[in-house]
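Box S2. Input/output pair 1.
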Amino acid sequence: MAAAARAGLLKPQLEALYPRVGELPFDSERKRMSTVHALEAAHALEAPQAAEAASALPPAVRSWIDRTGAQRLAFTKGAVDSLLEVSTAVWTDRGPEPLGEDRRRSIMELNDRLAAEGIRVLGLAVRTLQGSPEADAQSPGGLSPEELETELVFVGMTGMLDPLRPEVKQAVETCRRAGIRPVMITGDHPLIARSIARELGISGADKPMTGAELARLPVGELAARVREVSVFARVAPEHKLKIVDALQENGQVVAMTGDGVNDAPALKSADIGVAMGITGTDVSKEASDMVLQDDNFATILAAVEEGRVIFDNILRFVRYIISANCAEILVMLVAPLLGLPLPLYPVQILWMNLVTDGLPALALGVEPGEPDVMSRRPRKPKAPILTRDTGLHILWVGLLMAALALAAGVLPYRLAERLPEWRTMLFTTLVFSQLTLALGERSNLQSLFRLGLLSNRPMLWAVGGTFALQLAVIYAPFLRGFFKTVPLQPLQLGICAALSLAMVAALEVAKAIRRSRGGLGPGSGTEQPPG
């Protein structure tokens, strides 16, 4: 419309002089759209208005209309190759002339050259129609697509450059690092698809597959081809569904984006259907699992990253809770076997479950994502949260924590038979060890000192608050009687703190070993091929 205005053809004026009386909507099979416009309104004007109407069209066009005695004009736009199939003439400065093979070849060469530069090319054609009593706003001249879109006069082409958003190329690169394989499915010309795919860095951009080639492949062979082909051009809606099904047959988890009514079947079939919130139709939104409010591909990557961070935090939470409870169980089981008295009272166990399994555990749920979160390969969808490596981690952490707690009380118990002090030191060491465990579980690979205490302020407040509450249980007179504790001497409290810090040291050593072995993040051991 802007290009027409620059040429002196104003849309409001043309619509008033040549009103639309019907249209054939765009169809992905035809790859064309047609509109029919009446000429009676312009013919019925008085002399000054008639002159204005005549000036709205170039002289050669007016001469052609007058010569044919047309009452209506039909305009068709669509893919150039699609228009050439139904065109018999080409517009020149002298008016319509026969469209020979040389001219067809010249038009297609120009179309391919523009497409190879990433320019979307729209072909334009026109034909005259005689008046038809059946014509109304719902029926374009009373003609079917086969009758209307035939013997067209090919007018020309317009090239439209739809530049990629700056963040899209980076998003595609992030996809590849994260083990997510981007696949382009478009109705555009294969050369356009190849040019855009190259610019984006999509693998296999030199070998796009067309919808016609795809349609000829049996299902089994298509499943093999989609492992290699990442660019599909000139595809129909049913082809999108076949591609999704073939990828799923290979065991891939498929996220499909789309915005049109024809995309609904593929969006529904995909593991995750993603519709466009701005340009998307209601049908595509209903068929999808997720709607992008900004129509930005990079937002999908933000959602993937957020999902990975959430999973990591769930795993941290689970490992922390089970490790801490494992230590408590081991203390209660091992102490009698060693000939020791009951190590903890029920109220003390309840206190630990309240304070250490509460605030610090919740703070792990808001831990920021690790730097490598988008550099890992995807997890297998059916992989368990508690893997063998996670189970071993929980076991040795629980054993170490239980051993530290029991060691804290051995000295006063053996030398002086002071059971209240023994229980209080054991109780306090367990609480302090669980606090240091929460700090250590913030990352499976990164050192706590590299992460920094301030990178998760809720954790800092949770640990500090729980530490203060534990001191209150030891030293506040009205709480000591309830929790059956006794005040600890500074040396005894220092022993509890030192033993709990041994928990951090052990975790740091374990992280260093994992890093030396090239270990991955919290989801290690559950990766799948890129999908």
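Box S3. Input/output pair 2.
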Amino acid sequence: MEFDYIIVGAGSAGCVLANRLSRDPGNRVLLLEAGPEDKALSIRMPAACLSNLKSTKHNWAFQGEAEPELDGRQLQHDRGKTLGGSSSINGMCFIRGHALDYEGWRQAGCEGWSYADVLPYFKRMESYSGGADAFRGTEGPLHVQRAEATETLAQAFLEAGSQAGYQRTDDISGYCQEGFGVFDRTVFKGQRWSAARAYLDPARGRKNLTIVTQALVHRLIMSGDRVTGVLYRDQQGALINVMARQEVLLSAGAVGSPHLLLLSGIGPKSHLESMGIAVTADLPGVGQNLQDHPDFVLQFRCLQPVSLWPKTKPWAMAAAGIRWLIAGDGLCASNHFDAVACIRSDAGVEYPDIQLTISPIAVDENWSPLKEHAFQIHVGLMRAHSRGSIELRSDNPADAPRILANYLQDPRDRELMRKGIHWVRELVEQPAFSALKGVEIFPGAACQSEATLDAKLTSHTSSQWHLSCTARMGPATDRLAVVDPQGTVHGVSGLRVVDASIMPFVTNGNTNAPTIMLAEKLSDAILGLSPLAPIDLQVWQSPNPKGAQR
């Protein structure tokens, strides 16, 4: 079999590429996905996102290595294994990141990736229910719903932010990211609007697009330093060679893409040789520079019956499910993340590095609701200093790679997380929470010293599932860069990487929106189209970042 383009991975980026590349009927496009179709009801229902994380049918559920700074705990890394990838099982939170994230990319040698360069692609990809303006688009395939934040706890969270001296922002993905505001979500007419719904479904009828699910790619096929195709195992267990006339595009994600590069002999020479794999390109950066957003949760008893706990009882859940099936609204039509805050951890920090998100229900470590009225606030560290890696476990493509995130390895990350905990505790002492906040269930009011907080961080820090940066973009002069600013792998022709793995630094917020944006942008590069004209707009920044934390 022969195609013009072979896309490996039908996740957020792969769905974008499949749509954009197949719009030209002259391009024959093959999209390979290791997981099944995305037909499960739990994928369509926004409130069912936790059930997707408990199952392995649509979730790789990678088991991480023992984390040295977390007492050897092994965290599960949830990644989508179906059409739409992680956009089919994630929390549906939509946030672009800060403009200075992309200025950082440009300064790292990624020309063409400044905020002015990426903004037109953010606008092109979305249809925002909040309406069009200079920053937002309303004609794209990805429906983005503006939350109403009418629930009591979300309103208290926003009001407490104002009372604590933080500013309110009308649009966390627009002119002003810093402050407290509503949290956009990828939901449309009460259903999850994954990348598969947005990009793949409209393209399925095209005769020049072939979609193959349950196809596990084993390795890239090389001819010298050129990639000419891929070898994959189909649903029946047969090994199939398929060739690419133009390019192979790796969109297998921050875990899958470096895994396939390594299996194909592209990566650090010493590691490949230790695995008995012939080296085709010595690229030391493959699998390195792993970044994530560490997460820590504070839980509080709720003094009023306004949490979601009673609605999680079997009879209530059944009633909500029936309502959703009939009318497409109600409890099941929301991800229940209505409000968010992007704040700076301290004076002297140029732009937000802490994300706070409130949930109107508290859950235990197994994702089961606490059997009482309670709520929780997540502290997410957006610019962690620690770096991890992804390495081969063996040369068997069916063996998951080793994932070591090195959470909190850099002592500065613990300090920043402690500050985040402090700011949450200050927030819930504001008047807006006075009639709502009861005792601190976790980590508990007695947990105040650095030592006791560090012990809780060690035992309970988790992941926000934003693994990224493992095949980072950068110039050829950067020895640890894996791809150039066009996504082309250094020293290898016929191969690009297009997914969250090529981010030089993780963005300030959930990573799904930036991943879709970069696939939109690189689809133009693949097709040889001129990039969209930059949109040079000013964004809000603190007038006194060195002198004040808010």
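Caption for Box S3: The longest strand covers residues 239-250. The chain has a mean pLDDT of 97.
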